[in-house]
């Protein structure tokens, strides 16, 4: 382990902003833990169906505030996307080459998980598994992928939106909500917010990459103002208290993102940017930085396979006879919550197996070049050098600076 930490430290360029990687790792951890805690598969007459503890225990709504970290994803995406495109243009890379490389890195691991699950679904149906169970399982895999579609769209629009002020998409969300909720307009208008809502944190990240948002007063205003606005919308405007989708709820703050989700995301972005300084100091420690780098090397794999890991543990426990608490039982009380917390290490172990099996599809195969002794990945230098030891061929690479 000491050798691994040393190799990661020596392979990191001195100008790499480690805190941005830490924000990405924290966002990944929030999504994974959030899904594991608020998603349940309940056995009902031999069929598995999805359920949420928030349906039965609405007082747990603050859990969704802690683990709903998608705004931080888009913030980091705007940070590295705008900076990466500017660097690509400086090297003479065309827009088509840049966006093509980004899409390949983004969707190569997606194609793998969909292919594996297509085969698994056919196998389960052929084995006599109830169609409703297969549909419920596949939905858990497919549902998080909407994030990648929106992220890909915003990435492709980076040259257009990199200099867009965040207030413009925020104004769009505000007007859509007024028409939808205040004037009784058609719900189909809300589809505009799928892009406009997440464009707000993406534009905030792009603004940071241009040197803006460096004033602590501005960041505190984002944190406090966004939190107060979100709280006001929940308390007095009828918006749900949950920052995730909950089965049975008439309105979801997240699908599509409405004004409550966007203002809450602004508060998250303010908090994340305020954390950059402290994170940089913490990540000066080689061990802490090695842990963050390890998560970033497989971040997309973790995101794509964490629900599969939960389902693997659920399937392994299914033949036990009686439904296992926290795994197959209805999430309707504190006992379920304690039992689910006890299952988290098993989920993490299953996820580690999935990452070991599929992380190579995320990293791809870098092309070699002699330029500065570095690795070039899809037409651009990788920020980390290939570290070789005389004793073996072990290597450490860091994800490209503009990897989502």
Structure notes:
- The protein has 18 helices and five strands.
- With 404 residues, the chain is mainly alpha-helical.
- The protein has one domain (2-385).
- The strands form two sheets. A three-stranded antiparallel β-sheet has the order 3-4-5, with no helix packed on it. Strands 1-2 form a two-stranded antiparallel ribbon.
- Mean pLDDT is 86; it is low at 366-396 and 400-404.
What is the structure about, briefly put?
This protein has 18 helices and 5 strands. The protein is mainly alpha-helical.
What labels would you give this structure?
3-stranded antiparallel beta sheet; 404 residues; 5% strand; mainly alpha; 64% helix
How many domains is the backbone divided into?
A: 1
Q: Which shape, going by the Cα principal axes?
A: globular
Count, helices: 18
Beta-strand portion reads under 5%
Q: Largest sheet, if any?
A: 3 strands, antiparallel
In N-to-C order, the SSE pattern is: HHEEHHHHHHHHHHHHHHHHEEE
Low-confidence stretches: 366-396, 400-404
Helix content: 55-70%
Q: What distance lies between the first and last C-alpha atoms, to the nearest angstrom?
A: 27 Å
The structure class reads mainly alpha
Strand arrangement within the widest β-sheet reads: 3-4-5
Radius of gyration using CA atoms only:
22 Å
Query: What is the oligomer described by this structure?
Result: single chain
What is the total tally of β strands? 5
């Amino acid at each position: 382990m000491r050798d691994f930490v040393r190799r990661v430290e020596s392979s990191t360029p001195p100008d790499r902003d480690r805190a941005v990687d830490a924000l990405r790792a924290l966002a990944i951890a929030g999504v994974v833990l959030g899904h594991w805690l608020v998603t349940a598969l309940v056995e009902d007459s031999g069929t598995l169906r999805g359920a949420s503890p928030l349906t039965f225990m609405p007082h747990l709504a603050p859990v969704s505030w802690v683990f709903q970290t998608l705004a931080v994803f888009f913030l980091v995406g705007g940070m590295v996307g705008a900076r990466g495109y500017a660097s690509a243009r400086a090297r003479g890379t065309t827009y088509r080459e840049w966006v093509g490389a980004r899409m390949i890195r983004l969707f190569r691991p997606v194609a793998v998980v969909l292919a594996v699950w297509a085969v698994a679904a056919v196998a389960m149906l052929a084995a006599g598994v109830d169609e409703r169970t297969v549909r419920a399982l596949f939905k858990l895999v497919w549902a998080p992928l909407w994030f990648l579609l929106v992220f890909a769209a915003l990435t492709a629009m980076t040259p257009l939106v990199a200099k867009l002020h965040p207030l413009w998409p925020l104004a769009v969300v505000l007007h859509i909500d007024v028409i939808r909720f205040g004037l009784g307009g058609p719900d189909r208008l809300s589809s505009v917010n799928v892009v406009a809502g997440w464009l707000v944190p993406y534009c905030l990240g792009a603004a940071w990459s241009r040197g803006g948002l460096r004033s602590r007063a501005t960041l505190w205003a984002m944190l406090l103002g966004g939190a107060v606005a979100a709280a006001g919308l929940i308390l007095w405007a009828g918006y749900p208290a949950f920052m995730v989708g909950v089965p049975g709820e008439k309105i979801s703050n997240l699908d599509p993102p409405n004004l409550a989700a966007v203002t809450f995301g602004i508060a998250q972005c303010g908090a994340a940017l305020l954390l950059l300084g402290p994170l940089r100091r913490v990540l000066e420690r080689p061990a802490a930085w090695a842990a963050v780098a390890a998560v970033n090397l497989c971040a997309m794999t973790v995101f794509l396979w964490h629900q599969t890991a939960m389902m693997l543990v659920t399937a392994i426990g299914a033949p036990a006879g009686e439904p296992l608490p926290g795994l197959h039982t209805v999430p309707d009380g504190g006992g379920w919550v304690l039992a689910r917390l006890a299952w988290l290490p098993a989920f993490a172990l299953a996820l580690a197996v999935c990452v070991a099996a599929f992380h190579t599809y995320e990293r791809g195969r870098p092309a070699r070049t002699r330029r500065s002794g570095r690795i070039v990945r899809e037409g651009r230098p990788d920020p980390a050098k290939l570290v070789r030891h005389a004793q073996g061929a072990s290597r450490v690479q860091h994800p490209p600076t503009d990897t989502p």
